[in-house]
Design goal:
Blueprint: H1 3-16, H2 28-50, H3 60-66, H4 68-80, H5 107-111, H6 119-130, H7 135-143, H8 146-162, H9 179-191, H10 195-200, H11 211-219, H12 222-229, H13 253-260, H14 262-265, H15 270-286, H16 297-300, H17 303-307, H18 309-314
Helix pairs in contact: 3-4, 3-9, 4-6, 4-8, 4-9, 6-9, 13-15
């Protein structure tokens, strides 16, 4: 009989060999019932005592009520085209010079504008039109040229920056066009809770895309201050599945690590550099079995023998 057939016959005999070791009765259904009952009691108990670990959803209404000055300043920046979203570039707009490049590589431009956002229109003018708020101011804005619109919004933004605590009521007189009326109208509807649905509207019964709302929120300082309080910002190595569960996904620490290295984190194209570093490290990890020397490390440092010491002791 050939060796291969002998080997198969030996394995088959081992498969059908009767178990001669110790045995004990085991009721799987009983164990399952006990496990579900115990876990259920623990979950219900913790829920009753501690409640949900999730923080409530942050809305535009929360923002407008908690920090109206920041809300007005952000709405003005959207009109002026100076907010982060307005100047971000792809995938939201085709703003020139906004992308991060690494030599000839420009991934943002390659991806194209997939989710076009006109900050002034989508975050301010359209919601005001939908909610029929400040109609005269909206008409005046639409009748003006883009240059005049930018001049009005920029002047008002500068004036807000010089006002005490950014309070619109303390802004000095100036040629701001309809911008003060537009931003106050937006603030009013936001405080009433109507702005979230107006910005997020997709034209149907259900609105399942919160991207515009999140972008508008992130353009202000209110949202980032909440992130700082929850240890979520980049300089705090913030990563988590849900707020209130710091530190969250520990497996993402390597992404955040590279931003803490000044040589990388201070680069104008830091995001792109970190992406390529992680791609390189992922490829190295995937190709470990094929890289001479690197694949031999387990033999040089036999940590597995320490972990499975009982098995190797018997051998």
């Amino acid at each position: 009989m050939p060796d291969s057939q002998k080997s198969r016959a030996r394995r088959k005999s081992l498969d059908v060999r009767a178990w001669n070791g110790t045995t004990r009765p085991y009721d799987l259904l009983k164990e399952l019932a006990i496990g579900v009952l115990v876990v259920g009691v623990i979950i219900v108990g913790f829920a009753a005592v501690a409640g949900s670990p999730d923080e409530p959803t942050i809305t535009l209404q929360n923002w407008a009520q908690a920090n109206p000055n920041d809300f007005v300043a952000t709405a003005t920046a959207e009109l002026a085209g100076t907010s982060d979203t307005a100047s971000y570039g792809p995938p939201y707009s085709s703003t020139a010079g906004a992308t991060q490049t690494l030599g000839p590589i420009d991934l943002q431009t390659m991806s194209g504008v997939q989710l076009r956002i006109d900050a002034a229109k989508d975050f301010v003018i359209t919601p005001l039109t939908t909610l029929d708020s400040a109609p005269d101011a909206v008409s005046t804005w639409r009748a003006a040229t883009s240059e005049q619109q930018t001049a009005w919004a920029t002047s008002y933004s500068d004036a807000l920056g010089k006002a005490s605590n950014g309070d619109p009521s303390t802004v000095v007189s100036g040629n701001y066009g309809p911008v003060p009326q537009l931003t106050q109208g937006l603030l009013t509807v936001a405080k009433g809770g109507a702005l979230d649905g107006a910005i997020q509207s997709e034209g149907g019964l259900y609105n399942t895309n919160p991207t515009p709302t999140i972008l508008f929120l992130s353009d202000g300082t209110y949202f980032s201050s909440l992130a700082t309080a929850q240890h979520l910002t980049g300089d705090q190595w913030g990563m988590m599945n849900e707020t209130g569960s710091y530190p969250g996904q520990s497996w993402l620490w390597l992404f955040s690590f590279w931003y803490q290295v000044p040589l990388i984190g201070n680069l104008p194209n830091a995001d792109l550099v970190v992406v390529f570093i992680m791609v390189f490290l992922t490829l190295v990890l995937a190709l470990v079995p094929f890289i001479p020397g690197l694949r031999s490390i387990p033999r040089w440092i036999p940590v597995h023998r320490l972990i499975w010491r009982d098995y190797y002791r018997k051998r």
